[in-house]
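# nightly structure sweep
# worker-07 picked up a monomer target from the shared queue
# config: single-sequence mode, recycle default, output format = structure tokens
# input follows
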Amino acid sequence: MRCAAVEDAAKFVQDDLHVVSTKRELHFFYIYHYADGNAHLLHYIKSPFFNNSGNIIGVCCQAHELDTRVISKIDHAILRLGQRSDDHYSFSIDTHYKFSNLTDKESAVLFYLLRGRSAKMIALKFARSKHIVETHIANITAKLRCQTVDQFIQKVFDDGCENLIPPHVFSDLIAKHT
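# output follows
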């Protein structure tokens, strides 16, 4: 049986291109279920490599596997987000979210909307009123220059940002499950 990492080579290249386009270090997390049936959580740190003229000539990557005791807790938390593709899936934690004009709350609302959560469910999660969440949704719609929620969700997918996790959302997720 082939390793799931082999199947995700295109994603690695896409991540490298993202590092080159942003010209900064980015962190990525990949969860793979290998042929042995065990989950492996890998943390990648990718940084642009510059020549003496300041031009990017490559991407440096360092990776390490996270402690297996934590993996099942994180795996369970991510599975609950509803983003799973066959036997592997990946997310990236990005401090300069492509839609950086969004506030932390708006990016969190966007993150959960992309995972099929309703305004009411998001309001319950954040212990806020549904009206406040709907205000965040209206702000997202305006800031992304869209007319409807469906339009901005499509825009996020078209821009390849559906697997970005805002850092504060990831921190909250990990804190609750470790």
